[in-house]
Amino acid sequence: MSGLVLKLGPKERVLINGAVIENGDRRSRLSIVTPNANILRLRDAIHPEEVNTPVRRVCYIVQLVLSGDADPQEAKLQLLRGIEQLSQVLTDPDSRALLSGATEAVIDTQYYQALKALRGLLPREERLLAARLQ
To answer: Taking the domains of the chain in order of start, what are their residue ranges?
Structure first.
């Protein structure tokens, strides 16, 4: 995670290596210099009852790694399988780029970057599922 900069709004919370940290009353920036630190913005967290689509399932697995609730080595294979399954359905160039970035991040154990790439797929998935229901 070397070089990661978090910009936090007032009272925003972030989970860093299992500790919840709350920002003060003003906007601030945190520079994360420790490599492989596990970071999760709590505003981005997916709650278990919201894990109801393929992309959300894969995002949730990454989130469990970042929160320390899943072993990274055990989750790695599950994540790579999930990303591969998504790549069979999401075949447009933008989705492919995000999935490729997520794959590289998982291989490099950069789980925050993997989550960031996968979250980019959520709006596409939502549109596809909405179109399917019409």
So the answer is: 4-43, 46-133
Q: What is the DSSP string of 114-134?
A: HHHHHHTTHHHHHHHHHHHH-
- Rounded to 10 degrees, the C-alpha dihedral 132/61/67/17 comes to -120
Vertex 8: Cα angle to 103 and 43 (nearest 5):
60
3-state secondary structure of 16: strand
Quick: pLDDT tens for 77-126: 999 999 999 999 999 999 999 999 999 999 999 998 999 999 999 999 99
Cα separation of 69 and 73, whole Å? 12
Q: What is the pTM of this model?
A: 0.86
Q: Which residues pair with 13 in a beta bridge?
A: 22
C-alpha gyration radius of the chain: 15
